[in-house]
Amino acid sequence: MRVLFSVWDKGRALPLARRFQELGAELWASAGTAKAFATEGLPTHALDTLTGFEALLGGRVKTLHPTIFAGILAISPADLPADHPVWDVVVVDLYPFSAKEPDYIELIDVGGVSLIRAAAKNFQRVWVIPGPAWYEKALHDLAVHGGMPPLPQRQVYAAAAFQLTAHYDAMISQAIFQEVPVTASPNLRYGENPHQTAVFVGRLPEVLLGKALSYNNLLDIEGGLRIVSGWPKPACVILKHTQPCGAAYDADPIEAYRKALAADPMAAYGGIVVCNFPVEKSWVEATRGHFIELLAAPAFSDEAVAWVANHKKQTTLVRLPLNNPRAKWEVRSALGGILWQTPDTAESEGEEVLRWAERILRQMYSNAVVVVREGELLSGAGGQTSRIEAVRLALQRAQARQVPLDRAWLVSDGFFPFPDSIELSAAAGIRHIAAPAGGKNQDLVAQTAKKLDICLTFLPYRHFRH
C-alpha cells in the first residue's frame, strides 16, 4: 500500500502517517512533508525524486506533475509501466486560506486541491482522506479493516472531498468578489429594487414577449417551479413576492388556473403565474381581466403568444427549459460568507392533498399555515411570528371564501405546541389537520383533536423556511 501525503499541518498528520507505516505502507510526500516525517523517524520517499524538482516559482508548483497524477488516476496499476509508482491512499491538508491575510492570494492552494480531486475521482481504487477533519475516522477505519476501507466507505470520503473543495473555492470566490467589484455587464433588469444592480450566473429562461427579467422575476419563477414542477396533474401557482397567493391542480388546465385565482384575486393582481403544462390560446383567454406581470410555462402555442401580444401588452412571457433539474445545493449569503444547504424536497407519502399542501408550505415563510381542499389552496398565512396567529389568519381567509371547510385540510409547516390551534380550527369547521410529528405537548394536542372529533395527521417532515 502506497500512501501520498501533502499536508499543511505536519504534526496533525503524524499519527495517521505512523499508523500507515505500522501497517507496512510505503510513505510518499511532498518535500516539506517528507523532511518533517523523516525527522520524526518515519522513512518517507520525497516526490521530487520522481519529478526532478523540489519546487518551482517559489513553491507555487510542487506536486503538479504528470508522473504523480498518473499514479493517482490510473484505474489499474497495469495501465502504467511496471516501475511507475501507483498510490492507493492520498492524504491532503489544504493551505488554511484566509481572506483577512494581506497577501491571501498566495494562500490559494492549487496542487493540494488537484490532488484531492484526482484521488476522489478515482475512488473506486484510491482512498482520499481530505484533511484533518477525517483523520480520526481514517484511523478508525484502519483499525476496523486493517487497511483500505471497502468501496462504499471510500465513496463517502470522495463525496466529502468534493464538498471540501467546493467550500474552499467558494471562500476564495467570495474573497475576490468582495475585493474586486463584479465587472460583468448586468444581465438582469435590476435587483430587488430598481436602484440595485443584479447579475445572474447561469442559463436564463427564454423571454418570448415583454421586458428583460429582473432579480425578483427569477426568484418568483424558482418559487413557482418548486410547487408545480413534476406534479403529475396540470398545476398552476400564482405568486406575489415569492409567496404563493393561489395554487391549484386539476385535470383541466383552465380550471387549475381559475381555482388558483380564486384563493386571493386581489393579491393575484400583478402576480407571477407559473404552470407545468403547455399554454394554449383558450387558456390565456381565460385570464382576460387579470393583470399578470409574468407568465411562465414549458411551452406556448403561437396563437397563445399572439393573443398575449395583442391583449396583455404588459405581460412578460417566459418559456421554461424542458429539462430544468433542481440544483443539488441552495446558496445564500450571510455575515459576509456563503451558506450552503441541500434543498427541501421532502414530501410525505400520504394523501395527494397533503403532498400538495407540503409543496405550498415549502415555499412560504415560517410560521406558515395553509387550508387546502381537493387540490385547491383555499387560503394561507405565512411569515407570522406566532403559530396561533398564522392559524387565525388562514382560517379568517378561508371563511371569507364562504365554502364548507369540513372536507378541507389545515396544514402547518411546524409543530402545534399547544391545543389552542386545534380548538380554533374546530370552531371554524375544520375536521382535518396535519402538522409535523415530534412537537412539544404532542400527546395533549392529539387528545384535544380526538376530543373534538378531528382527524389529526402527524407528518414526517417539518418545512420551515426563513
Note down, in words, how this protein is organized:
By secondary structure, the protein is of the alpha/beta class. The protein has three domains: 2-179, Rossmann fold (3-Layer(aba) Sandwich); 206-319, Cytidine Deaminase, domain 2, CATH 3.40.140.20; 340-459, Cytidine Deaminase, domain 2, CATH 3.40.140.20. 37% of the residues lie in helices and 19% in strands. It contains 16 helices and 18 strands. The chain has a six-stranded mixed beta sheet with strand order 6-11-10-9-7-8, sandwiched between helices. It is elongated and about 85 Å long. It starts with a strand and ends in a 7-residue tail after the last strand.
> Got a strand count?
18
Number of domains: 3
Spatial order of the strands forming the largest sheet:
6-11-10-9-7-8
Q: What's the CATH superfamily of the largest domain, by name?
A: Methylglyoxal synthase-like domain
CATH topology label of the largest domain: Rossmann fold
Helix content: 25-40%
Largest sheet: 6 strands, mixed
The averaged pLDDT comes out at 88
Q: What Rg is obtained from the alpha carbons, in whole angstroms?
A: 29 Å
Oligomer: single chain
| Low-confidence segments | none
CATH architecture of the largest domain: 3-Layer(aba) Sandwich
What is the general shape?
elongated
Task: Give the N-to-C terminal Cα separation.
Answer: 49 Å
Determine the structural class based on helices, strands and strand pairing. Answer: alpha/beta
The percent range for strand residues is 15-25%
| CATH level 1 name of the largest domain | Alpha Beta
Number of helices: 16
